[in-house]
Amino acid sequence: MYEKVKQIKIDEDLFRMIYQYFIYGREDETELIKAGLKDKMDKMILRNIYTESKIAESVEERENARKDYLDRKEIPEDFRW
C-alpha cells in the first residue's frame, strides 16, 4: 500500500520567493529563502518532538521527548515541572 504523503503549509511570501528563485532565476533573496526554510524545518522538528512526548509507547520515551522539547524551547530547568 501507499503511505499518505504529509503536506505542510508555508507562508505565501516564502512560496513566492522560492517560485521566483526557480522559475526566474532570482538569486537576490537566497538568504531569505534559506532562513525561511530553516525556520519551517525547526518548527516541524519541534512539533514532532512534542507529539512524541505525548504518544510515545513508554514513559521513558515520553519523558526524554518532553525534556528534549523543553531544551529546544530554552525553558529554564527551574521553571519545569
Task: Walk me through this protein's architecture.
- The chain has 81 residues and is mostly helical.
- The chain has one domain.
- The protein is 65% helix and 0% strand.
- The longest helix has 26 residues.
- The protein is elongated.
- The mean pLDDT is 95.
Present the secondary structure layout.
Layout: H1 12-24, H2 30-55, H3 59-72
Number of helices: 3
Question: What's the number of structural domains?
Answer: 1
Mean pLDDT across the residues is 95
Question: What is the terminal separation in angstroms?
Answer: 42 Å
Helix percent reads 55-70%
Structural class designation:
mainly alpha
Overall body shape: elongated
Q: Approximately how much beta-strand content do the residues carry?
A: under 5%
Radius of gyration: 18 Å
How is the biggest beta sheet arranged? none
Unreliable spans are: none
Number of strands: 0
Order of helices and strands: HHH
Protein name: Complexin-2
Give me a quick take on this structure.
With 81 residues, this protein is mainly alpha-helical.
Q: Which features does this protein show?
A:
single chain, 81 residues, 3 helices, 65% helix, elongated, Complexin-2
